[in-house]
Amino acid sequence: MKGIWADLKMHRTAQGDTRIEALFDADPARARDFCAEADDLVFDYSKTTIDAAARDLLLDLARAAGIEDRRDAMFAGQKINETEDRAVLHTALRNLSGRVEVDGRDVMEGVRETHARMTGFARDVRTGAFRGQGGPITDVVNIGIGGSDLGPLMATLALAPYHDGPRTHFVSNVDGADIADTLADLDPATTLVIVASKTFTTIETMTNARTARGWMAKTVSQPAAQFAALSSAVELTAEFGIDSSRVFGFEDWVGGRYSVWGPIGLSLMLAIGPEDFDAFLSGGAAMDRHFRNADLAGNLPVLLALTGIWHHQICGYPTRAVLPYDNRLIRLPAYLQQLEMESNGKRVAMDGSDLDMPSGPVVWGEPGTNGQHAFYQLLHQGTMPVPCEFILAARGHEDGLSHHHILLAANCLAQSEALMRGRSVEEARELMRGKGFAGAELERQARHRVFPGNRPSTTLLMPQLTPRTLGRIVALYEHRVFVEGAILGINSFDQWGVELGKELALKVEPLLTGGESPGHDPSTRHLASLFRAMRG
Ligand code: F6P
């Protein structure tokens, strides 16, 4: 692969300051040729500096990395998460008619059984057959963090038009403000609390869960009866006092950030109903089929990954912005931050050697058009290009407000056009002359109004953000992360990098309460003593 990496870098150097617009001039078919489709989901990467030669090299890279074999190994249940000796089978959660074995055991029976129990429970809650002490459940509070929060939170917000179940709330932060603000307006007698934690040991989640139990115990005689648990550590859920009929387990081959498809998605299922939840699953499964069957050159996850590799590892752009022009995708950037940065933010390759190239980029973003009035200044005129990933639906859900949607879409397309085209100094001069400027002042003012352009972006276009389409999009990004990780030769499925901070938090705690805790650096000790003094 070294040769292909070198060729890619040479090609990038040879491109010099070739402009994206020149690629369109040279290839009249570029707008169509640099677009790929999976059913009615379209990925347009024409407004990037990837040309035909770069694309060929990138596809060679994917082939040389053995993407297809690695992909098949993942779907077959092989233990590709080598540092944890685990299979990676979140895909099994959304393909309920499939058949997968791990260690010679068919795992699908358990998956189907849990899915059926979740469905039954969701129906009972939604119809009122399952009741709290004060009557039918009006509010559901999902307590979890990271993958046990961001997936269902992101999807529940995204699919708000499909809500017809109880109100759904999410508590994640150990900051007491989070749970206090959430519970403030809720009636414990009609609230269901879901404790979502794969390990059932995460300190934030368990602290919040105990606080919620105390809150409920003040009014409800049997608080545990209004708790459910989602976890792969089912014995710990029993210790917490949750009846096994409301415990929904999953196996260790479902990574936290990949877990929305199974029990961790219960709050979503309660909000939108089992049928729409199943549509979300079927969307994910459809993207799986596309990923497995489409030729690499027309394979959306592969192309999305190769675009990412081109921008980060070859062009050297340190971040990428996810810019959904859909207000309901407000938590998608945060969800993708965990998915991408926890998966591919690694410095050691699978074989334990140092990575000899940058690992995954910083991922960030915010829905448009709000971001336009906040950080787009830097996107257009800052010194470091930020590849932008626009996401847009052709239709919204607000039938009477379609003029809003047209305006939203116009802004999305205008931004990618503006990023690519920019505005030359001559155009800026013309503009300023029209405003009456002349001479040195015209020159000075014009320079501030120049947009360098040639800033790359991609656009993901869908007909409408339905449960099925959301499933396809989430699976698309999951597989993108997998392909990027496989090309870099890293394990995208562990997260050892989150451990040290967790361990030290436990050791720092005594410093803040006046206890003994040896071994801390002077700055940490100093800050802790200031903290104690401020608390009085
Ligand atoms: O932050 C690390 C992490 O392990 C994530 O990978 C995970 O999604 C999150 O914590 C929550 O873990 P759990 O579901 O076990 O509470």
Automatic annotation (TrEMBL):
<comment type="function">
    <text>Catalyzes the reversible isomerization of glucose-6-phosphate to fructose-6-phosphate.</text>
</comment>
<dbReference type="InterPro" id="IPR023096">
    <property type="entry name" value="G6P_Isomerase_C"/>
</dbReference>
<comment type="similarity">
    <text>Belongs to the GPI family.</text>
</comment>
<dbReference type="Pfam" id="PF00342">
    <property type="entry name" value="PGI"/>
</dbReference>
<dbReference type="GO" id="GO:0004347">
    <property type="term" value="F:glucose-6-phosphate isomerase activity"/>
</dbReference>
<comment type="pathway">
    <text>Carbohydrate degradation; glycolysis; D-glyceraldehyde 3-phosphate and glycerone phosphate from D-glucose: step 2/4.</text>
</comment>
<feature type="active site" description="Proton donor">
    <location>
        <position position="342"/>
    </location>
</feature>
<dbReference type="InterPro" id="IPR001672">
    <property type="entry name" value="G6P_Isomerase"/>
</dbReference>
<feature type="active site">
    <location>
        <position position="373"/>
    </location>
</feature>
<keyword id="KW-0312">Gluconeogenesis</keyword>
<keyword id="KW-0413">Isomerase</keyword>
<keyword id="KW-0963">Cytoplasm</keyword>
<dbReference type="InterPro" id="IPR035476">
    <property type="entry name" value="SIS_PGI_1"/>
</dbReference>
<dbReference type="InterPro" id="IPR035482">
    <property type="entry name" value="SIS_PGI_2"/>
</dbReference>
<dbReference type="InterPro" id="IPR046348">
    <property type="entry name" value="SIS_dom_sf"/>
</dbReference>
<protein>
    <recommendedName>
        <fullName>Glucose-6-phosphate isomerase</fullName>
        <ecNumber>5.3.1.9</ecNumber>
    </recommendedName>
</protein>
<feature type="active site">
    <location>
        <position position="502"/>
    </location>
</feature>
<keyword id="KW-0324">Glycolysis</keyword>
<dbReference type="InterPro" id="IPR018189">
    <property type="entry name" value="Phosphoglucose_isomerase_CS"/>
</dbReference>
<comment type="pathway">
    <text>Carbohydrate biosynthesis; gluconeogenesis.</text>
</comment>
